[in-house]
Amino acid sequence: MNYTVNYVLENRLVEVPGGTTLLEAQRLANLPTDAPCGGKGSCRKCSVDYRRAGESEWTRELACKVVVDGDMEVKLLRASEKLQVLTDSAEAVGAAWNPMVKVRQLKVEPCKKGESRSDWSRLCEALGGEWEPSLSICLGLGKLLTETKGAVWAVTCGKRVLDVEAEEPDVYMAAFDLGTTSIAGYLIHVAGKRVVLTAGMRNPQAQYGGDVISRADYALANGPQELAKCAREAIDGLARKMCMEAGVSWEKIYAVLVAGNTAMHHLFLGISPDSLVHAPYNPVINEPLDLPASHYGLRVHPSARIFTLPVIGGFVGADTVACLISGDWLNREKLTLMIDIGTNGELVLGNKGRRIACSTAAGPAFEGAKITCGMRGAEGAIDHVWLKDGEVGWHIIGDGTARGICGSGLVDLIAVLLENGELDGSGKLQSGDTYSIGDTGVYLTQKDVREVQLAKAAMAAGIVLMAEKLGVEVEDIQEVDIAGAFGNYIDPDSACAIGLIPAELRQRIVPVGNAAGEGAKLSLMDKAAWESGATLASTTEFLELATMPQFQDEFVEQLGFDEEDE
To answer: Which domain holds residue 526?
Structure first.
């Protein structure tokens, strides 16, 4: 039997079968959810007020725990987050411009009397070399060549002819950084040799869980197609939004590139993540892919191609490869540590000679999933905390009422509490089990501190063990590149103060912005960059920390906040 759920503040009605949870009903109503744990009840962030038909009193409970057994009214307690998505503006590309999609003006010679050469073969001859036959091009090719007397424009990608027109076509490409939390998009104009528009949005897959493990578990229980459809529709919608803002028809997009971590990569493609969550945690496929965009629900040019970058290992994915492309790691001389702290934390240490990569479960704490008042970097988040003249100060995104604390603010807060003695080196709060940030209503618990310790210890242990594997000392590292939104907003002093990054590397820290998005763009703008991805992935060693006997010892060693001399 079906029942009606009325979301009164959003003026949204949805009909759902009996037995559906209110969290599932919220998804079916196309309303944003905040359930980082995927509906298991452990994060306690999906609270709603509800009442059944005929009741006058409202009850507050977790949406994932309330089963619809009659008509209901619901009030959502958390407003939709206006997430800050980090995107990079790009300048015009000069010498490196060698796009995946090219536009060429051609003169196709007419078939001479006494010969029987096909229109296609003569088109290929004008293009030079051999080309993959295209029935869609051939359908109207004869008429077009007759009308234009062989003077045409061709759009090509690799050895494929995507389009043939009488007039010069206006051609675009679109690159996407498919992150666990957010999606960044870039619209590239081929003739203009530049990015004309960037845009970002929250990844709607978050309604199925805030981290990759929660989403993988959901996919294993329900199949991957629901999550695949969610990601594809999001990317399609973001592409159309950019086209609308640029005044461009969506059919002008001839190539799309999607870069994401291994779980996002697999789920976008509709691949079951089973092998990622069971030992030995390997990907199903790690090669770069060139696929028809029409097969993935993208409303772009009918012949458009979609590209994915290769992945390195189980939880070091194509987004890390994109970061390496952005940093030109095939030519990098300096011994560099690259850290991309998102929902999952990926690290790479090395240079052009040798590189080692690993992954750590640092993200959930810094993304707010396991923090009592934690939230993402959106309006209402405390994003910075400082100590001045003995007084604690803070900044709220949007300058309004505080709703929680995001990763950069959390790192600052821990550093401030260490500085003013509210937190000792073992991680114990000195004034009880909670610390309140002024009168904001946002507070830190002893459990939250422990979550930060677990996250920062995993990251710090990974750095130490990679250096050991590479045969170098941590102090030998010449540059530390911090990628992603978290790295862009984090205070390096605070990161070093809490031991997230070794203190001796403080002066070598360089925020590099959305390096994954930059690498995705470059892979479309320069074919050599795309090709370098396969080399980078195949020659970067993957270090599975969980299988290393010394990881646990090093992890425990890094749990404390005891200061070390720089």
So the answer is: 329-566
End-to-end CA gap in the chain = 66
Q: Which residues of 238-271 are buried (b: 16+ CB within 10 A; e: fewer)?
A: bbbebbeeeebebbbbbbbbbbbbbbbbbbbbbb
Round to whole Å and give the CA distance between 260 and 197: 20
265, 317 Cβ separation under 8 angstroms: yes
Are 180 and 190 in contact, with CB atoms under 8 Å apart?
Answer: no
In a domain, 554, yes or no: yes
Among the candidates 21, 44, 76, a domain finishes at 76
Please indicate, yes or no, whether the overall pTM of this predicted structure exceeds 0.90. no
- CATH classification of the domain holding 16: 3.10.20.30
How many angstroms separate the CA atoms of 523 and 308, rounded? Answer: 10
Task: Concatenate the DSSP letters of all residues of 247-284 into one string.
Answer: T--GGGEEEEEEEE-HHHHHHHHT---HHHHSTT---S
CA distance 494 to 490: 8
- Retrieve residue 41's tokens: 């009840």
The total number of structural domains in the chain stands at: 2
Q: Supply 87's token pair.
A: 């995107």
Taking phi over 0 as left and psi of -120 to 50 as alpha, with beta for the rest, 112 belongs to beta
Asked if 326 contacts 512 with a C-beta cutoff of 8 angstroms, the reply is yes
Q: Find, among 500, 419, 407, 486, the residue nearest to 458 by Cα.
A: 500
Residue 134 lies in a domain: no
From 76, 104, 132, the end of a domain falls on 76
Cα dihedral value 243, 245, 247, 250, nearest 10 = 10
34: CB partners within 8 A, 6+ apart: 45, 46, 78, 81, 206
SS3 355: strand
Report if residue 491 sits inside a domain.
yes
Cross-strand pairs, 405: 374, 382
pLDDT tens-digit map of 451-489: 999 999 999 999 999 999 999 999 999 999 999 877 778
Kindly state whether residue 247 falls inside one of the protein's structural domains: no
Going by their DSSP bridges, the two strands 305-308 and 253-260 should be labelled as parallel
Q: What is the reported pLDDT for 94?
A: 43
Residue bearing the bigger pLDDT, 557 or 46: 557
Strand order across the beta sheet in which 2-7 lies? 12-17, 2-7, 72-76, 47-52, 59-62
